[in-house]
Amino acid sequence: MTTLPAHAFLDAMGIPHQRLTFPVAVDKGAASVARALGYTERQMVKTLIFETGGGERVLVMVGGDQKAISGHLKKAIGSRNIKMASPAAVEETTGYKLGSIPPFHWQPEGFRSFLDLSLMDEKVVGVGVGQWGHEIMISPADLVKAANATVVNLTDRSKPVWAQVGGETDG
Q: What pTM was computed for the model?
């Protein structure tokens, strides 16, 4: 099986993961990948790049069937002026085209990544590897470690942004 940079990164860190493949003819999108691999759409993580008004770019990871709540996202990032990065900005930032962006191995020092709290309830989640037709299945805790991500509530209006696993909050 092909070893891509994302695989090599996880191997070097000693992070367990499963390498899966699916036909490249599968339609783009989390729902299609989930169907092809036999998982739920929620388990297929969308890796999104946002830009702040100050020019910072950040990675946001949510389930394939989810959308980040704008107010929660702004609070987590700490900027009122945020927008989705353009496809060109995403490629400039990550080195990858939209559709299969790995959420780790390409970030420079200090780059911020956020993972939605609800994904911590999944036994395993899938992330892109940078090449369509390949997926990595990984535990949410190992994804947090690999991406050096901050876990925040981005999708549940009934919970605070800084909700923590186990229901405790830190403010």
A: 0.93
